[in-house]
Prior knowledge:
The chain has helices at about 1-10, 15-30, 35-70, 80-130, 170, 175-200, 225-230, 270-275; strands spanning about 145, 155, 210-215, 240-250, 255-265, 285-294. The protein is elongated, with a radius of gyration of 55 Å. Helices cover about 55% and strands about 20% of the residues. By secondary structure, it is α+β, with helices and mostly antiparallel strands.
Amino acid sequence: xxxxxxxxxxxxxxxxxxxxxxxxxxxxxxxxxxxxxxxxxxxxxxxxxxxxxxxxxxxxxxxxxxxxxxxxxxxxxxxxxxxxxxxxxxxxxxxxxxxxxxxxxxxxxxxxxxxxxxxxxxxxxxxxxxxxxxxxxxxxxxxxxxxxxxxxxxxxxxxxxxxxxxxxxxxxxxxxxxxxxxxxxxxxxxxxxxxxxxxxxxxxxxxxxxxxxxxxxxxxxxxxxxxxxxxxxxxxxxxxxxxxxxxxxxxxxxxxxxxxxxxxxxxxxxxxxxxxxxxxxxxxxxxxxxxxxx
Length: 294
């Protein structure tokens, strides 16, 4: 499209033969005629070239007008473009066929998976139905096999119908029922007691944490030994003080950095800060420098 536009907008000197003819006549008048045959042939060739250029210009202008009327901005379809279009359509069709084949294979595999899941589910339902049946102490009866999920069979006894007795009075009489209930209650209490004792002996895990505190004094004249003594005087259940050191801050001021181990359920950082800041004469502030679970 850019080449067509360039040729359509090119400015060609169509009047050049006229100027050449006028120039030839001027020189003929001045010097007389010379080689008239060759000049006529040259003029004819120049005129043919001019006509050819004019035809090209008109054809290009007509092509541009046609394209503008179409408004599509696309060049006319040539044989090469038709071949490329046919090849691209064939490639698209091949891609669609390959996708359809892959989808069919995937659909078949999904059908197989669904069938396997259905078979496993049916086997599982059979097993659950067998397990949910409550055992009944009755007379022995012919056993029948029950399929399990792994393909094996288990012999299960079927309960035989209990014959009803004619005397209703015998059903109400229970000579040994009370003794059996007492023995069962005693056995249950004994097992509960043993379980409680076993659970009490089992050691419980205590959650602990390692805390590093920064205790800052008021100025460089503060007695740091007395400050550390005040900090270590804080004692409570679940608190164990560790090592300490003095860290320079600036302008001759040093802070006390002290470590401690606490039980999480008994001691927290808020409690430590509150107890240490009570020593207002020595302590300006308390910060938690590090906190790690043990």
